[in-house]
Amino acid sequence: MRDTTTVNASHIINSWYIQSWIGTPPKPFYLLVDSGAPNLSIESTLAPKEKQGDSPMYDPSQSSTAQQLLGYTYSECYGSGYCDNGVVHTDVFTIGHVGLTNIPLLVRTNNNERATGIRTGNLGMNFDKRGMTTSPHKLPTYFESLIPFLDAPVWTVDWHASPRTGQFQFGYIDSSKYVGDIAYGFVVTQDHEWVIEVQSVQAGYDDADLNKVKFRVMLDTGTGGGTISREIADLY
């Protein structure tokens, strides 16, 4: 049976988080939904005390369905400069009302910066068919594991800067979220991230000239910033 699900997003310090449930019994954790990364990784009690912050931490020993994949390790770094590494467990992972068993979790045992606040980890949502950054073999990403259970192999984002509310929807496109027709463009494969090519830009009012300026944009839900070239900025 295929399914769909909708998850409310919380906007905290310029980033969007969703609540997930991990383990048996299930415990809640807030994860950053990151379309710019492949890994599903989480802070854990397996890290030394001096590496633990005040964020909620996953404890595999408290879940009856947690299983370590012996011999598997991982390492990752992000554009912010944060790096971590650790081991791999499988467990029950739920977002919305869709729960999957035996999902690989990258369990952090070391990092270069202690985590603070509500964020517990990253839910990577890029489309890297090679899988997550695990060794000795690449394990499938969460979205790759989820696709067989969805009505359609899609996920969508609905964010509102004011008020700061939003949703992630998995498996369908909600027609109530937009007016008119959706314009589709090809994804330009670049390091397995969601990159599109823009053909032209219109800056200003509706009657402003359409400027033919070709450039590529990475759609990254894991960062709160955005950059454009000087050429594009000068159009404004």
TrEMBL record:
One of its GO terms (biological process) is proteolysis. Residues 16-236 form the Peptidase A1 domain. Pfam families: Asp. One of its GO terms (molecular function) is aspartic-type endopeptidase activity. Coiled coil: none annotated. Transmembrane segments: none annotated. It comes from the Eukaryota. Belongs to the peptidase A1 family. This is Aspartic peptidase domain-containing protein. It comes from Staphylotrichum tortipilum. The lineage of its organism: Eukaryota, Fungi, Dikarya, Ascomycota, Pezizomycotina.
